[in-house]
Amino acid sequence: xxxxxxxxxxxxxxxxxxxxxxxxxxxxxxxxxxxxxxxxxxxxxxxxxxxxxxxxxxxxxxxxxxxxxxxxxxxxxxxxxxxxxxxxxxxxxxxxxxxxxxxxxxxxxxxxxxxxxxxxxxxxxxxxxxxxxxxxxxxxxxxxxxxxxxxxxxxxxxxxxxxxxxxxxxxxxxxxxxxxxxxxxxxxxxxxxxxxxxxxxxxxxxxxxxxxxxxxxxxxxxxxxxxxxxxxxxxxxxxxxxxxxxxxxxxxxxxxxxxxxxxxxxxxxxxxxxxxxxxxxxxxxxxxxxxxxxxxxxxxxxxxxxxxxxxxxxxxxxxxxxxxxxxxxxxxxxxxxxxxxx
Length: 342
Fold this sequence. Notes:
Blueprint: E1 2-13, H1 22-26, E2 28-45, E3 51-55, E4 60-64, H2 77-90, E5 96-102, H3 112-128, H4 134-148, H5 156-163, E6 166-171, E7 177-181, H6 186-195, E8 196-200, H7 207-219, H8 223-245, H9 251-262, H10 272-283, E9 288-291, E10 299-303, H11 308-316, E11 322-323, E12 334-337
Parallel strand pairs: 3-5
Antiparallel strand pairs: 1-2, 1-12, 2-5, 2-6, 3-4, 6-7, 8-10, 8-11, 9-10
Helix pairs in contact: 2-3, 2-4, 3-4, 3-5, 4-5, 8-9, 10-11
């Protein structure tokens, strides 16, 4: 059995500036951190020529006699798309069962889809001993998801899942990406983790529709939307400096700065529930926060300095969501082979 896991991520600043055409025209910048929630992929090699796909967390499965039968129809397409790419890449047929599991719901804003693609690629890399470095794997994951499967989105998730850790990422034309790992003192990361609450609203969303609206606003040269993205790019540098200098008292204000501008990128990013959650958190001690991912639902982040986290948690209980425990992790995608005797 070949196994692989890749970490999900928290986007702390600059969200949306990694999406084309903004990143191609103006250059984007994002600061994110991987956490110990994962996407898992398991490959069991077979010898009868058949191919089997299973999403354990979604209770979905399908089987094929061979790769020629596989059809991209919206059902387990991430698993199918990676497998078809691999077979074309190595130039020979494969037989296997691919099973996956993700620690967070799809559409929750933690980069689940892209992270799952990275995990599946990592399992194939382990099985077939493929010659990929970190940038290679992240780029291939991006190409499969965005080009082969035509799923809307940006570029940060693939790189966050592959590299792991806290990174300041830069995005340019021609799909150029530069990942800058940040060396943040352990005590500052511990304090950030203590104060940054991860709250699941209980709702998911289709990020593609929100991203499509964002892209259309850039193409239409919407001054309001483009200026908002410029401000979010600046927010990434503000967040980087605050973390490197240990100026954690500024984190909440920086998050709030980004959230106020992010809402200007597309009307679908927020809604009355999200606005009420946000205002309730601020009234009870949070100094800032944001929606995770494209917006519209999923997870939210709230920065709660000192001991205000407990008051914020109590105030949000009536909304029916849940707080998710997490820790920052330094490692990116990891793969190994099981079945060792002894």
